[in-house]
Amino acid sequence: MASSWSRLRAGAITLTLFSLAHFLVDVYSGSLGVLQPFLVARYGLNLSQAGLIGGLLVFSSSVTQPIYGYLSDRYRSKLFSCLGPAVAGLFILGATMAPGYGALLALMMLGGAGVSAFHPQGSSWSTSGMRGDRGGWMAVFISAGTLGMALSPAFFKEVIQRIGVDHLVWAAVPGVLLSVVMLVIVRAPGETGPRKVRSFDWAALQAVRGPMTILYLGVFFRSAVQVTYGQFLILYLSRERHYSLSDAAYLVTLYLSFGAVGGFLGGHLAERFGAKRIIVHSFLWSVPCMAVFFLVPGPVGVASLILGGFILLFTIPVNVVVAQQLVPSQAATVSALLMGFAWGMAGMLFIPLTGWIADHASLHTALFGLLVFPALGFVLTRRLPEDIGR
Question: Can you list the domains of the chain with their CATH numbers?
Fold first, then answer.
């Protein structure tokens, strides 16, 4: 009994540490949305160049995640996840002191590497000591990150007002301190002897390539909206709807916060109603809600945007848990494919493309047009097996 309680306590401490780290990592990676107006003004950038910053950060922080997932599954070094908060904070926020546009891009890319290294191992190790309701525990970990991303605009708006952009790197201190604590406390799950180098199990991935492909494309379509809106909504609200920067930051924080709540709720709903049903209905109902935002100005449109974001993000923990159940031997790798690679490919493509369309038309047109992708996600994910995730 004492041994079971000790394991449960250790599992809860691990989940808490990784959830806090996920929160901070995503706070730092989400800072670019509120930093962009300052960077555009400081470096004299057009929207295409601003989009390139976002696309490069997404590439570094997300597209490269399968590499770190593979290395994590193979070597199981805690450095991948434990150093993530410190590296992300120091380099992403340090980019505000860059002497030029080239240095800014380089620092953003280095900061993104910390984000990328953290996520695959974090999603694999965070719930390893918990028992029962895997979707619910995964929802805690993932929602912590989504909440960090959500609070990032308002947090950095307040920090910038108090200490200025030039001193923003001081906000990396919590990440550095948490990295130190994790290096001391975190242990690899189930590690009782010398660490072994493990081979990569391609056969396990090949056996489930059909549903994994559908899950991947579903995340890609969702991320086309999620990541691009996170980068451009503040600019859109301030430039084309004439919100103050403060009001725009708080509105985007509210929108993303409801998305975090949606992700937490979605993980629990999937346990009760099934993964496929939650994924399909998330795509189905998010599109009309978010479309109202672009068609109806004022409070009704804003409320519809928030509701649409809430519904759209139901699927974040659901997709990851289903993928890990399909290929348990490569948990970090498949988590990276869905949490990082799909997100990153969508961001790399659609952030610069949205900036280019905005330069030639408007941000309204570019952002509204992205809603075609959740509609495609609805059509595609209906092909998932009925019993997937059960």
Answer: 2-381 (1.20.1250.20)
Q: Which of 18, 360, 49 is nearest to 181 (CA)?
A: 18
Chain Cα centroid distance, residue 246: 23
- The pTM (predicted TM-score) of the whole model is 0.73
In whole angstroms, how far apart are CA 121 and each of 68, 78, 127, 185? 8, 8, 11, 15
The tens digit of pLDDT for each residue in 58-75 reads: 788 878 888 887 787 777
The CA distances from residue 219 to 83, 94, 226, 239, 317, in Å, are 27, 30, 10, 29, 11
What is the DSSP code string of 246-269?
Answer: HHHHHHHHHHHHHHHHHHHHHHHH
Per-residue pLDDT of 290-342, as tens digits, reads 999 999 988 999 999 999 999 998 887 787 778 777 777 676 677 777 767 78
- Cβ-contact 73, 200 below 8 angstroms: yes
Q: Print burial letters for 139-164: b (CB count within 10 Å at least 16), e (below 16).
A: bbbbbbbbbbbbbbbbbbbebbeeee
**3-state class (DSSP) for residue 204:** helix
